[in-house]
Amino acid sequence: MKRISTLGLTVVMMLWGVAAQAVELMHWERLPLAVPLVINQERVVFVDENVRVGVPASLTGKLRVQSTGGTLYLRASEAIAPTRLQLRSVATGEIILLDIAATLGDQPLEPVRILKNAQAQVTEAESSTVPVTERTPIPVALTRYAAQSLYAPLRTVESLPGVRRVPLKLRTELPSLLPIENVSSTPIAAWRLGDYWVTAVKLRNRGSARVQLDPRQLQAKLFAAAFQHAFLGPVGSAEDTTIAYLVTRGAGLEHAVLLPPVARGAGDEG
Fold first, then answer.
1. What is the spatial distance between Cα 98 and Cα 101, in angstroms, rounded to a whole number?
2. In CATH, what is the architecture of 24-109?
3. What is the torsional sign of CA 127, 22, 119, 154?
4. Which terminus of the chain is more exposed, N or C, with fewer CB under 10 A?
5. Among 147, 214, 146, 157, which residue's Cα sits nearest to residue 180?
6. Phi/psi at 146 (nearest 5 deg)?
7. Quick count: other Cβ atoms within 10 Å of Cβ 23?
8. Burial track 56-80 (b if 16+ CB lie within 10 A, e otherwise)
9. 144 neighbors 15 (Cβ within 8 angstroms)
10. Within 10 Å of residue 187's Cβ, how many Cβ atoms?
11. What tens-digit pLDDT sequence spans the chain (270 residues)?
């Protein structure tokens, strides 16, 4: 029963950090984007292309700006009144405007990812075979969307055109999924994009020993698999529960797992 694409191991590495820090999405539509800062806390801005940053002279000594590989690192050392920065694309010369302001605070701000119109506009027909970016395989994009939908704030969930939530056909525990571990496995949600399904399965440790999670131990015909966290802590601890994301192709999870036999009534005969 066990068959998992090596893509599953890649997805695992991508997901372990999803819950730790969400990313706020901002769409550049030729209107200045407001990016607030907290004094003495660095904020990261992903632009996805190399840019040169135009910083007003009034911010000298107040704002540290570093730019590398399409990522900006902004850190204010004192209060800054609303001020505009210009980001100029090295490749095209296009300008993106950021309105920053720095104030005191103790809550860290989420990183920002700036999406341009071309990145955000994908037709419904294209979306069944192409994820948000052509570089991202559909199973990876679908799994990331599921993880964000369950863990991240709604405003930070990255758009994935064509994806839809589908009804669960499995709602009971799946004892055959991880038979060698003392772990309960219960499906909680499922999504579909094109020919791929991803089912989120809640895993909970029933024992007192820590359980190291390995997608190769899953007993199912899966295209890929990933865990939100790398391990389960002992039962009763804050780490005793996590989510497994199980990707199937051509059908949902109900066709990929070995289901327990249906209980027969007392009057049933062979």
1. 10
2. Sandwich (2.60)
3. positive
4. C
5. 214
6. -60, -45
7. 17
8. eeebeebbeeebeeebbebbbeeeb
9. yes
10. 23
11. 455 544 444 454 444 444 444 678 888 888 999 999 999 999 999 987 889 999 999 999 999 999 888 889 999 999 999 999 999 988 888 999 999 999 998 877 888 888 875 444 433 333 444 444 445 788 888 998 998 888 877 667 777 888 999 999 888 899 999 999 999 999 999 999 999 999 999 999 999 999 999 888 999 999 999 998 989 999 999 999 999 999 999 999 999 987 665 555 545 554
Which pTM was predicted? 0.56
Q: What's the Cα-to-Cα distance from 59 to each of 51, 63, 75, 186, 256, rounded to whole Å?
A: 19, 6, 11, 54, 58
Q: What is the 3-state secondary structure (H, E, C) of 143-167?
A: HHHHHHHHHCCHHHCCCCCCCEECC
At residue 168, what is the residue type? L
Tokens of 21: 């820090």
